[in-house]
């Protein structure tokens, strides 16, 4: 797959994974805290800090009805009404510029997920370098068309989407002017469990849609995310907070700074380990070849003595004949006196 450039940063299989720290509502209604999160994300080595751009009114209706309440037994937000939840979680639009300015100051890429067309227009006024489409919006074809019309790279989370729905989203984006598309395998539960993450979908999705694929990961820890790199993930997105103990709408499944730092390090190591298909000794292994096993004289022998199980052994180091010649050498005579510890060579045989 071709590399994609976002704000001068190359994204693709030939470079380490692009790590996105998702702030979401973890600012807890404090701009000062939001800026602290940017600072912390930079210190972890994350490459980008992402916001979500919406208001309660652009997300839903101010209606207190059962349809507009969260009923899932295992949901972190069970019993809450959508409008009130989004009022609590949203990032004030006037905070976006200072947050993005801090990102630029620190050399970390700042961008956002728009949830309606007004959010796209607003983010365009701030000249964001790319856009993210959330899983719940990957069926919002008008929104995808609007984002694609900017011509900027688009990252699309695929949670819940069927192959047909993803095909429609990708075709819409391309037809509307976006050629740089990255899909993120995503399980839209909060938190998600590893057994429901199905990251084997990553290479299949990559082949099916002929684009880069990454992971939007809501599992706890870093194991799933690191494993995704081995399957070709070029982007990893994780929710990020200063401390889960501080609470907040997304805190329970968000990473803390030490965890994000570990993800950056271990995903880089996973990428390094991919290498290429290789058999035989690598350059770094060549010095270890001498510690393979080979044939050695294990007792002093006089000229004319015959090799037996008592005076011929397969041991380390590997400076003698290969072990596969053991049966060939047994029964042969030596043509000279030989000391214990001598590597067996063809020149010793009479």
Automatic annotation (TrEMBL):
It is an enzyme of class 2 (transferase). It comes from Desulforamulus ruminis (strain ATCC 23193 / DSM 2154 / NCIMB 8452 / DL) (Desulfotomaculum ruminis). This is Pseudaminic acid synthase. It comes from the Bacteria. Gene3D superfamilies: Aldolase class I (3.20.20.70), Antifreeze-like/N-acetylneuraminic acid synthase C-terminal domain (3.90.1210.10). Its EC number is 2.5.1.56. GO terms for biological process: carbohydrate biosynthetic process. GO terms for molecular function: N-acetylneuraminate synthase activity; N-acylneuraminate-9-phosphate synthase activity. Residues 294-350 form the AFP-like domain. Keywords: Transferase. SUPFAM superfamilies: AFP III-like domain, Aldolase.
């Amino acid at each position: 797959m071709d590399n994609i450039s976002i704000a001068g940063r190359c994204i693709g299989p030939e470079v380490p994974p692009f790590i996105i720290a998702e702030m979401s509502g973890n600012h807890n209604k404090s701009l000062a805290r939001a800026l602290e999160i940017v600072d912390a994300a930079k210190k972890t080595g994350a490459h980008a800090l992402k916001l979500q751009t919406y208001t309660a009114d652009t997300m839903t209706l101010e209606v207190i009805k059962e349809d507009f309440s969260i009923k899932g037994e295992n949901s972190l937000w069970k019993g809450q009404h959508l409008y009130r939840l989004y009022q609590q979680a949203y990032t004030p639009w006037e905070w976006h510029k200072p947050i993005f300015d801090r990102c630029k100051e620190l050399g970390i890429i700042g961008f956002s997920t728009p949830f309606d067309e007004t959010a796209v227009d607003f983010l365009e006024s701030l000249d964001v370098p790319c856009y993210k489409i959330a899983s719940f919006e990957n069926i919002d074809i008008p929104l995808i068309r609007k984002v694609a019309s900017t011509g900027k790279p688009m990252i699309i989370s695929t949670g819940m989407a069927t192959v047909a729905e993803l095909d429609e989203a990708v075709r819409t984006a391309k037809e509307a002017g976006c050629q740089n598309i990255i899909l993120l395998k995503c399980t839209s539960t909060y938190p998600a469990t590893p057994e429901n993450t199905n990251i084997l979908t990553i290479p299949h999705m990559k082949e099916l849609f002929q684009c880069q694929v990454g992971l939007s990961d809501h599992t706890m820890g870093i194991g799933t995310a690191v494993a995704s790199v081995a399957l070709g993930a070029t982007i990893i997105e994780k929710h990020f907070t200063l401390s889960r103990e501080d609470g907040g709408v997304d805190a329970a499944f968000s990473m803390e700074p030490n965890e994000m730092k570990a993800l950056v390090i271990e995903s880089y190591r996973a990428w390094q380990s991919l290498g290429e298909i290789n058999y035989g000794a690598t350059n770094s292994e060549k010095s270890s070849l001498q510690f393979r096993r080979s044939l050695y004289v294990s007792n002093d022998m006089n000229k004319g003595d015959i090799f037996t199980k008592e005076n011929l052994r397969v041991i380390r180091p590997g400076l003698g004949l290969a072990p596969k010649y053991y049966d060939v050498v047994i029964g042969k005579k030596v043509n000279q006196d030989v000391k214990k510890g001598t590597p067996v060579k063809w020149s010793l045989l009479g």
